[in-house]
């Protein structure tokens, strides 16, 4: 058993007869009244997110997890195929278990969390950043640089994100997977 002081991002807990992964949390100590922890939880079975507030010191049942390294192979409908990099076993996971499936490139190495009790996959943790090629971007408008002007761009995985005006088709860019935002252009 853990308490609210053990809450951290990525922790898997048993809550409302389901297993949830903590996406965000905030410890709040108001001037009046007791402290509490505001959390955003994502169900590892359904992919739905919910907000919940735990009072300080509340007991939570954490789920023991094991992490294993897998390589992303290919998508098939709403399922994604992964291969264990150590024993080459393959597993398929639904699109709901991935936080940002549109940024996943074939051959990318990810970490998959497994429930240590029944060996079921819980969720896929993407690397912090991925490098993707821009496949389509409208040309930037000259003189439109007074502020941080951006334009939509399509990446090789099909994801659409906003990039600065100087990014062109064929450029490789670094994308933050958690927020799905542009970080920098990669020079070759």
UniProtKB/TrEMBL annotation:
What InterPro entries does the database record attribute to this sequence? Elong-fact-P_C (IPR015365), NA-bd_OB-fold (IPR012340), Rib_uL2_dom2 (IPR014722), Transl_elong_fac_P/YeiP (IPR020599), Transl_elong_KOW-like (IPR013185), Transl_elong_P/YeiP_cen (IPR001059), Transl_elong_P/YeiP_CS (IPR013852), Transl_elongation_fac_P (IPR011768)
Q: Where in the cell is it found?
A: Cytoplasm
CDD domains reported in the protein's UniProt record: S1_EF-P_repeat_1, S1_EF-P_repeat_2
Cited Pfam families: EFP, EFP_N, Elong-fact-P_C
Q: Name one GO molecular function term.
A: translation elongation factor activity
- What pathway annotation does it carry? Protein biosynthesis; polypeptide chain elongation
Tagged with keyword Transmembrane helix: no
SUPFAM superfamilies in UniProt: Nucleic acid-binding proteins, Translation proteins SH3-like domain
Q: Which UniProt keywords apply?
A: Cytoplasm, Elongation factor, Protein biosynthesis
The record's PROSITE patterns line, in alphabetical order, gives: EFP (PS01275)
Where does the Translation elongation factor P/YeiP central domain lie? 67-122
GO annotation, cellular component aspect:
cytosol
Family that this chain belongs to: Belongs to the elongation factor P family.
Protein's job: Involved in peptide bond synthesis. Stimulates efficient translation and peptide-bond synthesis on native or reconstituted 70S ribosomes in vitro. Probably functions indirectly by altering the affinity of the ribosome for aminoacyl-tRNA, thus increasing their reactivity as acceptors for peptidyl transferase.
Protein name as annotated: Elongation factor P
